[in-house]
C-alpha cells in the first residue's frame, strides 16, 4: 500500500500537469485567434474551431484519469480525497467554460457566415455590372496575361472597320499606318516596361478611337473606346494639332538650317522664336539666350518703322542697315503681320548694297557737275557776266549757244529773253528788271515766281556771292502747281463723291472727333447734320445714335478702335442689325495722319434675299430628302409582298398543290406576269432612288463580252418570243473583255432590247451591233418601230416619259432613264437617233477602267 502511494501521487501530478497544459493550449489557441482576426471572418472561424477541438480533446483524458485516481485513493488519507475533489471540480469548471466558449463561437461563426454570403452576393453583382460595361458595343478591351493568348472583351461599332475576330490585333489592317505603328510601340512598352499610355488612333475609315493602356494585377490591358461626336471632334482637333505642330517643327528646322536670320514676335513685339542664324547675328550662345535676353538685331527706329507700316494686307519689305559682328550690314527685311503677332526674315544684301553705294557715289560725283543738274543754273561773275550755265539752262530758255558762249551781261540776257517773249509780261519792265538785278547788292537770297507765257511756273532763286557775282537757280514748279491744282480739284471731287455715295462714310481724327460725314451716314443712323457736325466727339455721336443701336458691339467698339493708344492701329469689320431692322456692314479703316474712316453699307435687301434663298434651299433640300426617303421606303415595302405573291403563284403552278382549271391557270399566269412587271418597276424605282441619293456603287469586274452577249440573248429570248420579234446580233468573233459592273451592263442591254422589242412590229427583228474602239465597248440597239418625233427625243431619257400608245404594252417610262443613269455611272455616254416611221437606234459607249475597283455614284 505504501509503496504504491508515490506512484499514485506521481500519476496525479502528471494529470495535474496535463490539465495545466490543456489550459495553456486553450490560452495559446485564443491568443492565436486574436492574432489572426485581421485575416477575415472565415479565417477566424477556422482558427476558433481548431482551438475548441484541441481543448476538448485535452480535457477528456485528464478528466477520466482524475476520476480513476479519485476512486483508487478514496480509502486513503483525507487530504488525498480533498485534492481529488478539487481536481474534479476544476476539470468540470474547465469543461463548462469550454462549452460556453464553444456556444459563443458558434454564434459568431453564424454571423460571420451571413456576412460572407452577403459580401459574395455583392461581389457577384459587381462582376455582372463590370461584365455589362465591358460588353458595351462602343468599347473593346484586350488583356494579356503573361505569354498566353490575349483575351478580347466587348466590341466596337461596325462603322469603325475594326475586325470582331482574331484579326483585331493586326492593327495595320484596319488602322492608318502611322496610328498602327505608334500603337504597337506603345503596347510593347506597356507589356515590357509597364508604361501606361493614352492616345488617339485613326481607322482606315477615318473614324477616331481612344486607346488606353494600363497594367493591373500583373496583367496588361488596352481599352479601345469609340468616341462620341464631341470627343471625336476633340480628338480630330488633337490630331490636326499634332500635324500642325509637325509642320511647324519642320519649318522651324528648315529655318534653323538656312543662314538667313528669322524671327517671330508676339503681339506686343517681344521675340518668341529665332533661328540659329539670328542667334549668331546677335552673338548669342543659343537662340534661346537671344530670346531670354531680348537681343535685337534691328535698331529701335527700324523696328518702330516696321511696326508702324506693316498691316495684315501689306507686309513690310525694305532694306535696313544694322551692325552685325561689328560691321555695318545691309539686310533685305520682310516682315508679315499675323493675328498672333508677326514674323520676319532678313536676307544679307551687303554685297549688293556695296555695289549700289559705289554706283551712287559715282553718280553723285557726276551729279556734282552742274552740267548734269536737271535744275537750270546760271552763274554770273562780279561784272554780272555769264560765267557758267548747264544744259538744263539751255533747254529751259532755248538760247543760242554762240550767244551764251559770248558771256553776255545779266541785263543783256534778260533783254534777250524779253525780246523772245519768254519772260512774264510786266507793266513796268524797267522797275521789274532793276528789282531782279538788285540781288547783286542784297545780303540774302531772293526768290520770286515767274509765270512764263508758255504756261510754265518757275521759282527763281538768286544768291549773291561774297566775292561778287550771283548764282541764279530756276526751279520748275509747273508740275507742283499742276499737282496742287489737281489735288484741290480732287479734294472737291472726292467731297462731292462722298456726299453722293449710298454708303455711309464718317472720318474721325486721332482725338476721336468727327472730321467729315456724308448724308448717307446720317440717314442710316437717323441723326441730323448738327449732331454729326465736324468736331463732334465720337461719344456724343454714339449717344445720338443710341436709339438706333446701343449694344456694346456698336459705337462703344468703334470708340475703342478709333481712340485707342495702341502702337498698332487696328482695323475691324462686321455686321450690325439696327433696331429698325436695317442690316449694316461696317468697316473701321485706319487712314494716314492717325485718322480713321468708318463706313456703313446697307445690306438689308441682300440679307433678306439671302435668308429667303437659304430658307428656300433648305426647304428644297428637305423635300428632296423626303422624296428619296419616300421612294426608298415604298420600294422596299412593296418588295416583300410582291416576292410573296410571286412565290405563292409559282407554288400554285406545281403539281403538288393540285390541278387547276383552265381559267384558274390563266388567272395564275396573269398574276405572275403582273407581279413580275410590278417587281421590275419597283426595282427600277429603287435603282433610280439609289442613284439620286448618291449611294449607288459599281462592282467592277473583268467581263468577257462574248459570254455577256450569250447571257443577254438567253435572258431576252422569252420576251422576244412573247413580242414575236427576232434578235440579230452582229459582233466580231472575239470581242475581248472589259472592266465594268456586270450586273448593270447586263441591265443596260436588257432594258434597251426590251424597249426595242416593245416598239417593233410582230414578225420583224431588232439588231444588236457590238464592236470595240480602243478600250471602249460600243453597242447599238436598233428597231424598225414607228420611231420618235424630233420634239420627243429631248425627253426620252426623262423619268416616266413613256410612249405607250405606240408600243405593244405600256410601261412606267423608267427604262431609258435607268440606261442613261447606269451609262453615266460608268463615265460613258448614250445617244439616240430616230426618225418617225424609220425606227430608232440607241448607241452606248462604255469605257473600261484600268484597275477593277468599287466606285460610288456621284
TrEMBL record:
Entry coiled-coil feature ranges: 106-140
Regions crossing the membrane: 82-103
Any one GO cellular component localisation term in the record: plasma membrane
Cross-referenced InterPro entries: HATPase_C_sf, HATPase_dom, His_kinase_dom, HisK_dim/P_dom, HisK_dim/P_sf, PAS, PAS-like_dom_sf, Sig_transdc_His_kin-like_C
Enzyme Commission no: 2.7.13.3
CDD domains: HATPase, HisKA
UniProtKB keywords: Coiled coil, Kinase, Membrane, Phosphoprotein, Transferase, Transmembrane, Transmembrane helix
Gene3D superfamilies: 1.10.287.130, Histidine kinase-like ATPase, C-terminal domain (3.30.565.10), PAS domain (3.30.450.20)
Domain (Histidine kinase) ranges: 633-850
Top-rank EC class of the record's enzyme: transferase
SUPFAM superfamilies attached to this UniProt entry: ATPase domain of HSP90 chaperone/DNA topoisomerase II/histidine kinase, Homodimeric domain of signal transducing histidine kinase, PYP-like sensor domain (PAS domain)
Keyword field contains Transport: no
Any one GO molecular function term: histidine phosphotransfer kinase activity
Protein name listed in UniProt: histidine kinase
Amino acid at each position: 500500500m505504501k509503496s504504491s502511494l508515490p506512484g499514485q501521487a506521481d500519476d496525479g501530478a502528471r494529470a495535474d500537469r496535463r490539465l495545466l497544459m490543456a489550459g495553456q493550449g486553450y490560452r495559446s489557441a485564443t491568443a492565436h485567434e486574436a492574432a489572426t482576426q485581421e485575416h477575415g471572418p472565415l479565417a477566424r472561424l477556422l482558427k476558433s474551431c481548431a482551438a475548441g477541438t484541441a481543448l476538448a480533446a485535452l480535457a477528456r483524458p485528464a478528466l477520466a484519469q482524475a476520476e480513476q485516481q479519485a476512486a483508487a485513493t478514496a480509502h486513503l488519507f483525507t487530504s488525498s480525497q480533498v485534492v481529488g475533489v478539487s481536481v474534479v471540480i476544476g476539470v468540470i469548471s474547465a469543461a463548462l467554460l469550454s462549452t460556453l466558449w464553444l456556444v459563443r463561437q458558434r454564434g459568431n461563426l453564424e454571423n460571420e457566415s451571413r456576412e460572407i454570403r452577403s459580401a459574395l452576393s455583392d461581389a457577384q453583382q459587381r462582376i455582372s455590372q463590370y461584365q455589362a460595361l465591358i460588353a458595351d458595343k462602343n468599347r473593346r478591351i484586350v488583356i494579356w496575361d503573361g505569354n498566353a493568348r490575349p483575351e478580347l472583351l466587348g466590341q466596337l461599332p461596325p462603322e469603325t472597320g475594326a475586325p470582331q475576330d482574331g484579326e483585331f490585333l493586326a492593327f495595320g489592317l484596319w488602322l492608318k499606318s502611322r496610328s498602327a505603328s505608334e500603337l504597337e510601340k506603345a503596347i510593347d512598352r506597356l507589356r515590357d516596361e509597364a508604361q501606361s499610355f493614352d492616345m488617339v488612333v485613326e481607322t482606315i475609315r477615318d473614324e477616331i478611337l481612344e486607346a488606353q493602356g494600363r497594367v493591373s494585377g500583373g496583367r496588361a490591358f488596352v481599352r479601345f473606346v469609340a468616341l462620341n461626336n464631341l470627343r471625336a471632334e476633340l480628338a480630330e482637333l488633337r490630331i490636326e494639332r499634332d500635324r500642325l505642330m509637325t509642320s511647324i517643327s519642320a519649318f522651324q528646322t528648315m529655318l534653323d538650317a538656312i543662314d538667313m536670320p528669322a524671327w517671330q514676335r508676339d503681339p506686343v513685339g517681344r521675340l518668341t522664336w529665332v533661328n540659329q542664324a539670328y542667334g549668331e547675328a546677335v552673338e548669342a550662345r543659343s537662340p534661346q539666350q537671344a530670346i531670354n535676353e531680348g537681343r535685337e538685331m534691328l535698331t529701335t527706329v527700324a523696328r518702330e518703322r516696321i511696326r508702324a507700316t506693316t498691316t495684315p494686307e501689306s507686309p513690310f519689305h525694305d532694306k535696313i542697315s544694322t551692325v552685325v559682328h561689328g560691321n555695318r550690314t545691309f539686310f533685305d527685311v520682310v516682315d508679315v503681320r499675323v493675328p498672333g503677332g508677326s514674323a520676319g526674315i532678313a536676307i544679307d544684301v551687303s554685297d549688293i548694297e556695296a555695289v549700289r553705294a559705289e554706283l551712287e557715289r559715282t553718280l553723285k560725283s557726276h551729279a556734282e557737275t552742274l552740267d548734269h543738274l536737271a535744275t537750270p543754273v546760271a552763274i554770273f561773275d562780279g561784272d554780272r557776266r555769264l560765267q557758267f550755265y548747264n544744259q538744263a539752262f539751255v533747254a529751259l530758255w532755248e538760247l543760242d549757244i554762240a550767244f551764251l558762249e559770248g558771256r553776255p551781261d545779266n541785263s543783256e540776257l534778260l533783254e534777250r529773253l524779253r525780246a523772245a517773249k519768254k519772260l512774264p509780261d510786266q507793266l513796268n519792265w524797267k522797275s521789274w528788271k532793276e528789282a531782279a538785278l538788285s540781288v547783286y547788292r542784297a545780303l540774302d537770297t531772293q526768290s520770286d515766281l515767274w509765270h512764263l507765257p508758255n504756261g510754265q511756273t518757275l521759282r527763281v532763286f538768286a544768291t549773291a556771292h561774297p566775292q561778287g557775282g550771283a548764282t541764279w537757280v530756276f526751279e520748275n514748279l509747273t508740275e507742283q502747281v499742276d499737282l496742287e491744282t489737281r489735288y484741290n480739284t480732287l479734294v472737291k471731287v472726292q467731297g462731292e463723291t462722298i456726299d453722293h455715295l449710298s454708303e455711309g462714310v464718317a472720318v474721325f481724327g486721332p482725338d476721336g472727333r468727327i472730321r467729315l460725314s456724308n448724308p448717307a451716314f446720317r440717314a442710316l443712323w437717323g441723326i441730323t447734320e448738327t449732331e454729326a457736325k465736324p468736331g463732334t466727339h465720337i461719344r456724343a455721336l454714339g449717344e445720338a445714335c443710341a436709339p438706333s443701336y446701343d449694344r456694346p458691339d456698336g459705337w462703344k467698339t468703334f470708340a475703342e478702335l478709333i481712340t485707342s493708344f495702341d502702337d498698332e492701329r487696328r482695323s475691324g469689320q462686321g455686321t450690325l442689325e439696327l433696331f429698325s431692322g436695317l442690316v449694316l456692314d461696317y468697316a473701321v479703316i485706319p487712314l494716314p495722319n492717325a485718322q480713321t474712316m468708318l463706313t456703313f453699307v446697307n445690306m438689308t435687301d441682300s440679307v433678306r434675299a439671302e435668308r429667303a434663298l437659304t430658307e428656300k434651299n433648305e426647304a428644297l433640300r428637305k423635300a428632296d430628302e423626303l422624296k428619296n426617303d419616300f421612294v426608298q421606303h415604298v420600294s422596299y415595302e412593296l418588295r416583300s409582298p410582291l416576292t410573296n405573291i410571286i412565290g405563292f403563284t409559282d407554288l400554285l403552278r406545281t403539281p403538288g398543290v393540285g390541278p387547276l382549271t383552265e381559267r384558274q391557270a390563266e388567272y395564275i399566269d396573269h398574276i405572275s406576269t403582273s407581279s413580275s412587271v410590278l417587281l421590275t418597276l419597283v426595282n427600277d424605282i429603287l435603282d433610280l432612288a439609289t442613284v439620286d441619293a448618291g449611294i449607288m456603287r459599281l462592282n467592277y469586274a473583268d467581263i468577257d463580252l462574248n459570254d455577256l452577249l450569250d447571257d443577254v440573248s438567253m435572258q431576252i429570248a422569252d420576251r422576244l418570243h412573247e413580242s414575236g420579234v427576232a434578235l440579230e446580233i452582229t459582233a466580231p468573233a472575239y470581242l475581248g473583255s472589259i472592266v465594268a459592273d456586270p450586273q448593270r451592263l447586263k441591265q443596260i442591254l436588257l432594258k434597251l432590247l426590251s424597249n426595242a422589242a416593245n416598239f417593233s412590229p410582230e414578225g420583224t427583228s431588232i439588231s444588236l451591233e457590238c464592236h470595240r474602239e480602243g478600250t471602249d465597248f460600243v453597242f447599238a440597239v436598233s428597231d424598225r418601230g414607228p420611231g420618235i418625233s424630233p420634239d420627243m427625243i429631248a425627253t426620252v431619257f426623262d423619268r416616266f416619259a413613256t410612249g405607250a400608245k405606240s408600243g405593244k404594252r405600256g410601261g412606267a417610262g423608267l427604262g431609258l432613264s435607268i440606261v442613261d443613269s447606269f451609262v453615266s455611272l460608268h463615265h460613258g455616254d448614250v445617244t439616240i437617233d430616230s426618225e418617225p416611221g424609220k425606227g430608232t437606234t440607241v448607241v452606248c459607249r462604255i469605257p473600261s477602267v484600268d484597275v477593277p475597283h468599287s466606285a460610288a455614284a456621284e
